[in-house]
């Protein structure tokens, strides 16, 4: 007599994708939202001349150390844990997304990864709600898997993409850089922000740099920001950000070396 407990069950008559039809869909995630401090809680539109969205390591390190900038608001992504955020001055190790004002320029420091499925929701929360900028500059890193061509760790390069409204202007926000090579791909939050700027008819520029760490790429990104974007804005750089950035680059290089040894 067969043992009904240990006997291998017969194959299911349903395909795996059919079985999923009986599983209730997961509850949708709440939309990202902006939290404003009490002194700026009025429901008025904010119209900065430029909104800079920093995601790449060199741009985050340089813009984090600019002063004097004041906190405008914070973007809350509900699925991101708030544990580990410093109670004192903001740190680059915090998992946060804060918006700062530096004169008429707004700076967004995106210090946590945004999955592709949430990129469009984050883009809509940052641009076109209460924050309506004249221009948008997105600073992201090139992913080697998306790049059609050869990239060297020893050579810093940067390319740009623009919305049709920005490309139609006689004077560009970012000058002296070539366009992102044809056949290469951009994804994630950077692509979502540029696409949203195109739909909102905002002058938008996406600057992609390579590699993500090292003195050459820091100098390249800093040069673009200082000469083209922040010219006319009064600011100073606090702390020795270059040494801090180089220490991070060396730690990352040692980790990569250990992985492939």
Structural account:
Helices cover 28% and strands 20% of the residues. By secondary structure, the protein is an alpha/beta fold. The protein has a single domain, classed as Rossmann fold (3-Layer(aba) Sandwich), CATH 3.40.50.10900. The strands form 2 sheets. Strands 1-4-5-6-2-7-9-8 form an 8-stranded mixed β-sheet, sandwiched between helices. Strands 3-10 form a two-stranded antiparallel sheet. Residues 254-261 have low confidence and may be disordered.
Summarize the SSE layout with pairings.
Elements: H1 16-19, E1 33-35, E2 50-54, H2 57-64, E3 66-67, E4 70-76, E5 97-102, E6 105-110, H3 116-126, E7 135-141, E8 157-162, H4 164-167, H5 188-200, E9 203-210, H6 215-229, E10 236-237, H7 241-259
Parallel strand pairs: 2-6, 2-7, 7-9
Antiparallel strand pairs: 1-4, 3-10, 4-5, 5-6, 8-9
